[in-house]
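Write out this protein's structure.
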Amino acid sequence: MTRIAVLGAGKIGEALLSGLLASGRPASELVFTERHAERAAELTERLGIASADVAGAAAAADVVVVAVKPQDIAPVLGELKGAIRPGTLVVSLCAGLPTALFEGGLPDGTPVVRVMPNTPMLVGEAMSAVSPGAHATAEHVGTVVDMLAAVGRVVQVPESQQDAVTALSGSGPAYFFFLVEAMIDAGILLGLPRAVAADLIVQSAYGAASMMRESDDHPVLLREAVTSPAGTTIAAIRELERHGVRAALIAAIEAARDRSVELGRSVQAR
């Protein structure tokens, strides 16, 4: 039996715990930490999972998942260093933080796997990318992949690509939400009730995503299949290109990548 401790029961931490329960893992194999007593009590009552302090959770765990904000990592590492057992696998869900930061703050030889998940973990549709640190073996990576498969899809990438992953899929849901928000506003401008516009766009987004997942065709081909000569869609695409939407998206994702790099450097500099 593998006992998993989740340090930080925010949205991602809670989603992981819920996904593990839904996949059949017993609550007795899980433990979490949470700074706010009321929040901890509410989660324990709802999920049936015990809470503990960092030292207590780490001392009993085979896998420690760190799901705190990057700026809060220093005190957590300080508590972990004296409590973690030799060979315990540490999984970081902290945006921007390299495995070397954890390896430097924990006992020598601690295996660390870096993960960038995203918020669709809340509905079991996360996209997570994993990267092993210097002491993590293929078996360690397999353990993390199996764990994350309970809440979505998983890919393995070199750690050098993690900042790009953070910008693309880690922040990616926000870009889609932003686009859907704008399209709903357009529907209202065109005279549709908000609820009708939202239903039309959300289902269209869901259907389009399903087509892309299930089809072998490139998105360009799928778009062209909707774009008739001299039709409504090409008129809309022309306006999107005229307003630089493609360039704006690329620039936005580059900015997110740069911020991920900056987060990692700022924490390491402390």
